Amino acid sequence: MGRALAFMGSMSSVGKTFLAALACRWFAKKGLRVFPFKAQNMSLNALATEEGEMAWAQAYQALVAGRKPSVRMNPLLLKPLAEHQAEIIFLGNPEGVLPAGRFREFRRAYRQRVFAVLEEVLAENDLVIVEGAGGLAELNLLEGDLANYELLRTFRLPFVLIGDIDRGGVFAQLLGTLELLPEIRDLCVGLVVNKFRGAVELFEEGGRILSARSGKPLLGLLPYQEVHFLEEDSASLVRFSGFVTERPLKVAVLAYPYLSNFLDLDPLRHEEDVELIFTQDPRALEEAEAVILPGSRNVARSMAWLRERGLAETLKKLAGKKVLFGLCGGFQLLGRTLRDPEGLEFGGEVEGLGLLPHETLFRRPKRRGPLQDRPDFPFWKGPLSGFEIRYGRSFWAGEEILSLAQGEVLGTYLHGVFFDDAFRTAFLNFLRERRGLAPQPPQAYQEKVAGALDRVLEHPAFSAFFEALGDLDKF
Hints:
Low-confidence stretches: none
Structural class: alpha/beta
Strand content: 25-35%
CATH superfamily of the largest domain: P-loop containing nucleotide triphosphate hydrolases
InterPro entries: Class_I_gatase-like, CobQ/CobB/MinD/ParA_Nub-bd_dom, CobQ_GATase1, CobQ_synth, GATase_3, P-loop_NTPase
GO molecular function: ABC-type vitamin B12 transporter activity; catalytic activity
Function: Catalyzes amidations at positions B, D, E, and G on adenosylcobyrinic A,C-diamide. NH(2) groups are provided by glutamine, and one molecule of ATP is hydrogenolyzed for each amidation.
Family: Belongs to the CobB/CobQ family. CobQ subfamily.
Shape: globular
CATH topology of the largest domain: Rossmann fold
Number of domains: 2
Active site: 328 (nucleophile), 415
Largest sheet: 7 strands, mixed
């Protein structure tokens, strides 16, 4: 039976995903067979493998550990559909909709199914890195909390408790969490104060206080990192003003409601001459060289929002002046009509932007998995691979289509295309040429991710933390 180590947070956004990814990288480089695991994730950022859908975060952790992403790494995925509703994805497959008021029943129904998956992966791997969800001490949610409390208690998992000093209140975060959960306090192997800014000696007394009050060692005082890959919180990405850096190539992502799969665009954020912003500001769209319409989990509501804000008219005025690129739901929005007779997403019929001539029909079954096409784009005319997650089917000139371009308005159903280094470079060089900038050679995104994580692990504070965790016999 393999061992496990859990990364639990005192609240959301303390750095669990990033530290779990670093742990996957660290222990994999030590020669261990490492398996990332998050029992339940709520996210609109999904990757579709041959097995089905899973959260991007666990796929990312798998890749940096040298493992092929598997739906067992994220057995339960909830994808918000509208207020108080979410699509249930279990082991990659859709299993209906979770309506408002049924959350407790839902968790009871899936508890044993999820725990059975963890039992399997523990038996098959040297080390399972478990990531928690949100805050550990959500007292009103403890019963049936299969991603945190129940998981730790049932499997007696050792865990690291992480606090975020950058947002303040780190003593209350860490000590309060342990105080509220005395029944699993013995499972905590130590504390982490994350996102620290300033001289280490400024927190020496703070570290002593935490250790004395908790009875747990302070395993890490980890500095704030500017390295950000695959951040899942779209709200934190949205900028309501314009571009702010001197990077010459400006790309705007239209951040409409029900924005989904925005992690498709993560590789663009790490190109040295590209400033990518998620925005709702029409002035930013006008400043950009390209405007990307990303996926949407409810295209009808996204379309209504575009009209209410006057952004539909802005996009129509920009057609022919800017490159407009729609991905999946964004591709659907660029078309003439969207029809959903079965109510799979919104129900009824909605007029699109009409910037491309196709029409979209929503129908079962849901398509998910790898996808190939040969788009005829101004900068790319050849085979292209990605993945699909959709109910919508688009038709033009009597045929079903996966991609379409007219002039510099283009779209595709292929998610993940910007992770293709050659395609991303061709797209950006097309934009560079429009701005009179010199073309650039491809940058290997996957190598950049691994290299950035390795540089973080070389930092004395991070290396000391993982060395402290390295003695697996104590877990």
